[in-house]
Amino acid sequence: MKKRFGSLWFRYLKTDWLTVCKPHLQDVPVVLSVAVHGKLIVSACNAFAEQAGIHAGMAIADARAFIPSLKIIKEQAGLAEKLLHSIAEWCIRYTPWVSLDEPDGIMLDISGCAHLWGGEATYLTSIVSQFKQHGYTARMGIADTIGAAWAIAHFGSENTIINEQAQSEALFPLHPAALRLEEVQLKRLQSLGLQSIGSFAKMPRSVLRRRFGDSLLLRLDQAMGLEDEFVLPIKASLPYEERLPCLEPICTANGIELALEELLNKLCKRLSGEGKGLRAAELNCQRVDGKLETISIETNRATAQVKHILQLFAIKIPQIEPALGIELFTLVVSKVEIADPIQENLWNNRISLKNPTVTELLDRLKSRDANCEISRYVPSAHYWPERSMKIATTLDEVATVDWQMARPRPTRLLKVPERIIVTAPIPDYPPILFRYKGDTYTIRKADGPERIEREWWIDPGEHRDYYAVEDLQGRRFWLYRSGHYDGHTDQWFIHGFFA
Q1: What is the pLDDT of residues 24-55, one digit of tens each?
Q2: Assigned domain for 373 exists
Q3: Longest pairwise C-alpha distance within the chain
Q4: Exposed (0-12), middle (13-18) or buried (19+): which is 407, by Cβ within 10 Å?
Q5: 481 membership: H or E segment, kind and range
Q6: Domain UmuC: where (predicted)?
Q7: How far apart are CA 172 and CA 236, in angstroms?
Q8: Does pLDDT of 344 surpass 80?
Q9: Beta-carbon count within 10 A of 298 CB
Q10: CB neighbours (10 Å) of residue 439?
C-alpha cells in the first residue's frame, strides 16, 4: 500500500480554544501571557492581534504599546499539550494512526483511509470544515512523506494535496524553514543568500554536510522520501479491532445493532480462523458532535459466537445516547484467549461447566447487572470449614483435592459463625432446642458430634464439635460447641444451613 500522510497545523490553537470557551472575545485582539524570568511574555495571539504586529515572544509591555485595549489572559500550564491530545483522539475517526506534532500540530497516517470519504480532496475538506465548525482555524497538507506534508501545511498554499512523487516541485519554492531545520542552520542559510529549498537541494551532499551538518541532509531526505519517517500513534492499534464509518449518521438502536453485527461478523470470523475467542470487548461510537459513547462486555470463557456476543452488547445498547447521530463505530477486543473447541457429548445430556449454554447464561446475568457477582468454588486442602474452599480464578481451574464427602456439609456456610443459646440434656449430647435471632427452634433429629481440630500452625484456638440438626419444620442447621463443655451456654454457634 502506498504511504500517504496528512499534517494539520493549528496556527491559533490556544487563542481559538479561548474564544470557543469565551465567545465574547472572538472579535477583539487577545493574547496569552506567561512569566519568563519575572517578565511577562506573549505566548500566543489571535489573528486580530497578529495583524497589528504582535507575535509570540514579544514582551507584554511592547504589545500594549501596539494595542492599548489589548485583552491579556494568563495561560494555563500545559494548555497546548492538553488541547493537542484531545484533538488527536478526536481525529482517530479519520485514521487510527494519529500522533502529536507539538507545539501546535497533528500528524496523520492516512494510508488506505481517504477512499472511505470519496478521495483525498473530500477527506481533507471534511477534516478542515469540521474543525472550522468547532471554532478552530486549521491548515492541512497531504503528501507521500511526513516532511512534505508538514512543509505544505505550514508554508505552502492553504489545504494543498501533493500528488505522488511530486515532492520536489512542491518543496523547492518554499522557505528552508519548511524542512523543520534548527534556528542556527536557518540563520546560516540566510547569511549565504539561500532563501528557498531549491537553492541548495541539488548542491553536492559533501558541501551541505560540511557547512550545515548531517541534520539538514536528514530533513531533506525525509521530505523527499529518501529516508523513512514514521507516525507514532497516541494509541497503539490493537491487533483485534474493526472500524465501520457511516455514510449517514446513525440515530436508532436498530441501526447501532446492525452496525455492531457487521463488525462482529468480521472480527469473529478472524478469531475463529485463529482458534481464539474474546474475553473482553468494547464498542466505541463517535458522535457527530465529537463526543464518544462506549459500552463494553466481558465473558467467562473465550468465545467467537456472534449471536452470543451480540446478545451481551444488545443489553447495553440502550445506554448509548446517539444525539445527532453516530458517524463511526469501532469494535476493540482488549482480551483474547485460545478458545478450546467443545466436543458434543453424544451419549447423554449432562450439563457441566464445559457446556457453552452454561457459560453464556453466566455472561448474560453479568451483563444485565454490573453489580452481579458470580463465583465458582473449588475445594482447598484444609479441614477447618472456613478454609476448606476457595474462589476459582477461572471456570476451567482444576481442583487439587476432592470435596469432603465423608460428612455432610451445609449448602450455605456463614462467613462468620454466630452465637446461639442452646439447651442440652447432658454436656456431650446434641441440643434439644436453641435460640437464634429471637426465634426458638426445637430439634427432633441430630447427628454428631464431628470433632474438627483447629489448624494450630495457622492460628491458635479451641476445637469444635459439630452437629447436623433438624427442627420440627424440617429445617436443617449446622451447629457446633467451641472447646470442651465448661458449664457456659455461650460456647455454641450456628455455622451453616442445609438445603
Answers
A1: 888 889 999 999 888 899 999 999 888 888 98
A2: no
A3: 115
A4: exposed
A5: strand 476-482
A6: 19-73
A7: 35
A8: no
A9: 14
A10: 7
pTM beyond 0.90, yes or no? no
Query: Cα separation of 12 and 30, whole Å?
Result: 11
Segment 477-499, tens digit of pLDDT: 999 999 887 766 668 999 999 97
Determine the 3-state secondary structure of 378 from DSSP: strand
Decide: 411 and 499 in contact? Cβ < 8 Å. Answer: yes
* Position 396 in a domain: no
- List the one residue out of 455, 456, 475, 453 whose CA is nearest residue 465: 453
List, as own/partner pairs, every contact residues 226-230 make where C-beta atoms lie below 8 angstroms and the sequence separation is at least 24, other chains included: 229/145, 229/146, 229/147, 230/146
Instruction: Provide the number of structural domains found in the chain.
Output: 4
Q: Beta 292-303 vs 276-287: how paired, if at all?
A: antiparallel
Which is it for strands 139-143 and 160-161: parallel, antiparallel or unpaired?
parallel
Q: Is residue 161 classed as helix, strand or coil in its secondary structure?
A: strand
What CATH number is associated with residue 196?
1.10.150
Question: How confident is the model over 301-343, as pLDDT tens digits?
Answer: 888 889 889 999 999 999 999 988 998 999 999 888 888 655 4
> How many Å apart are CA 52 and CA 67, to the nearest integer?
8
C-alpha cell at 19: 474564544
Say whether both 61 and 122 belong to one domain. yes
Query: Do 132 and 175 have their domain in common?
Result: no
Question: Could you tell me the CATH number of the domain that includes residue 143?
Answer: 3.40.1170.60
Give me the domain span that covers residue 350. Answer: 241-368
- The CA distances from residue 364 to 235, 282, 297, 340, 367, in Å, are 30, 16, 10, 21, 5
Element of type H or E holding 271: helix 253-273
User: Which pLDDT tens digit goes with each residue over 401-444?
Assistant: 877 777 778 888 898 999 999 888 877 788 899 999 989 999 99
Q: 346: domain CATH number?
A: 3.30.1490.100
Asked if residue 455 lies in contact with residue 448, where contact means CB atoms within 8 angstroms, the answer is no
